[in-house]
Amino acid sequence: MSKVLVLGATGGIGGEVARQLSVAGWQVCALTRDVAKARSQNAAYTWLKGDALNRQDVIAAARGCAVIVHGVNPPGYRNWAEQVLPMIDNTIAAAIAERATIVLPGTVYNFGPDAFPVLSEDSPQHPLTRKGAIRVQLEQRLLQSSREGARVVIVRAGDFFGAGAANNWFSQGLVKPGKPVRAVSAPGAPGVAHQWAYLPDVARTMLELIERRAALDAFACFHMAGHVDSDGTQMSQAIQRVVLRRTGLQPRVGVFPWWLLKLAAPFVVTFREIQEMRYLWQTPLRMDNQRLLAALGHEPHTPLEHAVEAALTRLGCLPTPA
Q1: What is the CATH number of the domain that holds 39?
Q2: pTM, whole model, 2 decimals?
Q3: Which of 64, 88, 165, 209 could bridge across to 12 with cysteines, CB 3.0–4.6 Å?
């Protein structure tokens, strides 16, 4: 049985990748600060006490692992400058020691508008934000690690939604978790394309690439096409259709209150960081997945309304079927 270390297994992407790897027969090890709590939620994994910010914890947890899934991030938009790079450096040290493959969920923060509207893996990375600059440094360190004994697989996708993902635009911007959907808040402008990615599809893509890792380059990056909201209204309309079918009531669509974030940004770090990302909603964006198709022959893809219904159900926004 192959062994994998998942950092961030209690979160969204890390949790879903861990679940799919476990179902596929992998021995899943996961690092957590609260072993008892984590084990009570999922006893199928080998939970190890530790912190992704502690290098010795990560190195010890990775012993015997062929793969390390780096699905951990600071909560919200806080403490990126202090934590993101030290965490990836610890993962790199462990991967080099084990000659393991690092698997990373990538973001579009690396790119500025000069690379839009179509992003390929080789598009120039000229980020506009502090978070974007950190992500560029992170991937540069991964590239260097691939020359020092580690292997790297990056899967870059649009905005996550679905499964256990809670810290994302879908669950924090468009709807309100745990509450019936009476209104949808749309961050984008009509006519501006936006990129979405259903988290279980992202995890499935990672799993299939992990299974083919020996045939990939030492540093391999892939883009997912995901769900392209081609005119900026399709995600909101999909939510409306799902809610109408399940409840008989159609929620209204309103405009996301960017003005409020702008007013509060000087006083709230999270709001300032979100405000910096507004350009991703003002410029059309689509991701080219030809390299992924060449590697896998297909891209895992759940139909949009099925994905939206599953996401809303998981968030507690839809009534439980009788």
Answers
A1: 3.40.50.720
A2: 0.94
A3: 165
